[in-house]
Structure formats: structure tokens, C-alpha cells
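FAQ

Q: What does a record look like?
A: Structure on top, sequence underneath. For example:
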């Protein structure tokens, strides 16, 4: 729950607020200023898919929840005077969720890492000589 509270707070802060301004300054020094908003969305929402999956959620359910959460954040930003809702941000959020889900499924081998598997049985057939 704390993760949701922190990310919601960051998403609704004015863009010149302390954490966001510091990140923007660091991005400008690294030459990433034009790409910084998309990079933060990609890393943030892909990371949330991983975090919620690691907390015990099913990967696809975690991805659907994070996508719904990102849509809710974009909707809320439309009602706040110092923020604006953006379809471009929502598209980047969707890409981030898909990439995060792909990484999680790749790491967990299809989302089955925590499930009990049947033991591998090898059957050896020896031909009898007559």
C-alpha cells in the first residue's frame, strides 16, 4: 500500500517539486531531458508490475492492475490545475506495463515459477537380446 501512496504522490506533485526537479536536473546533465518523462514512466510502471508480482500477485493480474492504476492517475491529473492528463503518457504507460509483464514472464518462465511442478520422469527402455 505504501508503494501506491508514494507513486500517487509523485504523480500528482507539481513538476517543479523537489524530487521531480532534482530528477529533471540530473536528466539535463546526462543529456536525457527530452526523454526523461517517457523514461520515468517506463521504469516506474514496468517496475510496479515486477513489484506487485513479487509481492505474490499473478503477473497478468498485476499488469492489469497497474494499467488501471496508470489510467486512474492520468484521469486524476486532468483535474489538478498544475498537472495535465495526456494520451501520450497513457500510451507510454501501456508500453511500460507490456514490457514489465514480458520481463516478469521471462524471468518466471511463463509465470509458473511458484507453482508446484511434476517431477521429471525419464523412462529408459532397454531392448532385450534374444
Amino acid at each position: 500500500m505504501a508503494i501506491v501512496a508514494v507513486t500517487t504522490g509523485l504523480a500528482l506533485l507539481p513538476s517543479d517539486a523537489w524530487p521531480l526537479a532534482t530528477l529533471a536536473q540530473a536528466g539535463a546533465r546526462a543529456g536525457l531531458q527530452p526523454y526523461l518523462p517517457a523514461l520515468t514512466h517506463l521504469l516506474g510502471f514496468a517496475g510496479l508490475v515486477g513489484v506487485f508480482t513479487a509481492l505474490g500477485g499473478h503477473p497478468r493480474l498485476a499488469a492489469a492492475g497497474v494499467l488501471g492504476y496508470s489510467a486512474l492517475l492520468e484521469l486524476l491529473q486532468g483535474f489538478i490545475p498544475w498537472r495535465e492528463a495526456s494520451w501520450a503518457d497513457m500510451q507510454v504507460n501501456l508500453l511500460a506495463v507490456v514490457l514489465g509483464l514480458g520481463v516478469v514472464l521471462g524471468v518466471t518462465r511463463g509465470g509458473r515459477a511458484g507453482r508446484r511442478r511434476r517431477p521429471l520422469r525419464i523412462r529408459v527402455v532397454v531392448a532385450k537380446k534374444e
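Q: Is there anything notable about this one?
A: The chain has one domain: 2-107.
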